[in-house]
Amino acid sequence: MSIPDEVIEQVRDAADLIEIIGEHVALKRTGTDYRGPCPFHGGTNRNFAVIPRKQMFYCFVCHEAGDVFTFFMKKFGMDYPSAVRDVARRVGIAIPERQQAGPDPREPLFEAVAVAQEWYARQLRDAPEAKAARDYLASREFTLDAVLPFGLGFAPTGNAFLDAVEKLGVPPDVLVAAGLVLRRDDGKLRARFWSRLLFPIHDLRGRVVGFGGRVLGDGEPKYLNSPESEIFHKGRLLYHLHEARHAIRKAEHALLVEGYFDVLRLVLAGVEHVVAPLGTGFTVEQGKLLRRYAPHATVLFDSDAPGLRATFRTADELLRAGVRVSVATLPDGEDPDSLAQKGGSAAVEKVLRDALDVFERKLQLIERKGWMGSLSGRRQALDRLLPTLRAASDPVTLDLYLARVGEVLGVSRDAIQRELAEHRPPPEPPARREAARGEPVPARSRPGPGRDLIRAMLQDPGLRSRIGEAVADPSVLPEPDRSLFVAVAALPAADAPATLLETLEASPRVLLAQLLEEAWAPPDLDAVVSGALNRLEAWRVEQQLREIDRRLPLAPEDEKTTLARQKEALSRELSRLHPGRWNVIRKGRSSAR
Fold first, then answer.
1. Strand partners for 56
2. Bridging pattern class, strands 196-202 and 153-155
3. What SS3 state is found at 65?
4. pTM of the model
């Protein structure tokens, strides 16, 4: 028998942590927390803290930590379901049981990762080898006492981790399945994380399911996550959500930042409703997860060019999930970590008060580019707005956005809606049956401008920002090119493309592996990029020409003149961008006549 997750969450939310733990510990209020002697290691000093806003406890001496269920498990030797039932009985919630065939087969993986987290946390606190990690935290103005309640740890080099878990009796196959170790070609095991500061990642039950590791020194990749496993799915988890969801629900608002350190700094500053993706592209599944707790989210990413691209891609996924999205703008040279460090929660709240709806923020940036002063500029502006219009799943939000576009660009609602309906990715070349089965398809079998742009970004990391900015709407690319293009364009220039192999879905991952092995060295890389961008732009123009051809026969006489002029201008533009394609279209029209 198992207890539904939603019931577990309901019980946890209903439990009065102070009252329940106070039955066993003499607690006194200290600021916003409550302190008392630790019930686990004994003693009379008030080293044991109960933190209501986080629904957790923590001992600053023996470092026991957890939520209300963990307290009962540790105090009375209960298993997890028994602890949930005991708390449910106290708060008056009936637990509807559901059948489950036997114990959860993933339980050994959860146990292995929990053991690893406790071991890594001890290394950070006590191990001489972890001095570099402790010094790094100090250099970023984080005290050890401040971060230990978050469960941070340190992974040393060598076999110390393997030796420790072997003594604890964790089977090697479980370690591999949990993503804690790698099996080399010679069959020997190696710890996955070496010389890294580790951030534990939890599921909604508060169980540790994986880690994000920040390298100490100049190694690559800078951040390394646990691999996908039966218990760890990067695209379905958010860092700190297991603790932040209470504050998010109370505020009816979630704050989304880019990194682990941003979350830590904001929480320590008193901003509780904050989460972060796991160092990868934001997914619609993460958006739906966030939507369970709040209807509104604010994206607070870096305000440089890569940060803005990540902001709008994240915002679009949130819109697809039905979340109302605002975008906050940081002062020049600041990130959320530095902002909160210097100005505390007041500085963060000020930035959040000035946040704009994502669509208004896009319009603001477009107006600064000066595109509203010409017809071609307005066309370009609409292209930049189309991805967000397509992403708006809420009909009211979409209606407001359409009205705003018409107001700013002077384009009719009907024309914009036709553009949304007609704007489709170009037809893909016939794919082999292997592709339909999810098997690898050689890169050369799927040519196109998107593929050349990906190759160029892999060849020269400095091109990522330029190309990502130039392709305003990656949805024109076929899959898997589209997913790989978005991931590579968002990758910082200093990061190696191979780091994406652990974050991508199957098809784009296979494509990336093939492209990385490919011997591709064009004599003029800039010419390749220009040509590919031209071909993509030519396809957009061709789509507009097809739309005019569709409308012309049935258009009123006074509108036909306007359409004919537009067609003539677009034909000249297509001829300039892609003469070969224009000749094919022109010959086709001549044959039709």
1. 51
2. antiparallel
3. strand
4. 0.67
